[in-house]
Design brief:
Elements lengths: L1 H15 L5 H7 L5 H13 L6 H7 L5 H6 L1
Length: 71
């Protein structure tokens, strides 16, 4: 299913944590699936700062605990 695929893609991007992964990881923060959002937050936390700090601050307010924990 689409969510499972996006979860795996976000996980792979989170592990890469490169400049090229930045845009898809930012998009992942707004996905309906909490696991995808959490992986996006995790990956952005690993990318070079500080451009994603505002997006990660928003992820700290996510209703899902796993997203907040990874932000």
């Amino acid at each position: 299913n689409d969510s499972a695929l996006r979860q795996q893609a976000a996980r792979a991007l989170a592990l890469l944590a490169t400049e090229d992964a930045r845009t898809p990881l930012l998009r992942a923060l707004t996905h309906p699936d909490a696991v995808v959002r959490a992986r996006g937050a995790e990956g952005l936390g690993r990318t070079p700062p500080p451009a994603e700090v505002p997006a990660l601050c928003l992820a700290l307010e996510d209703p899902d605990f796993h997203v907040r924990a990874r932000a």
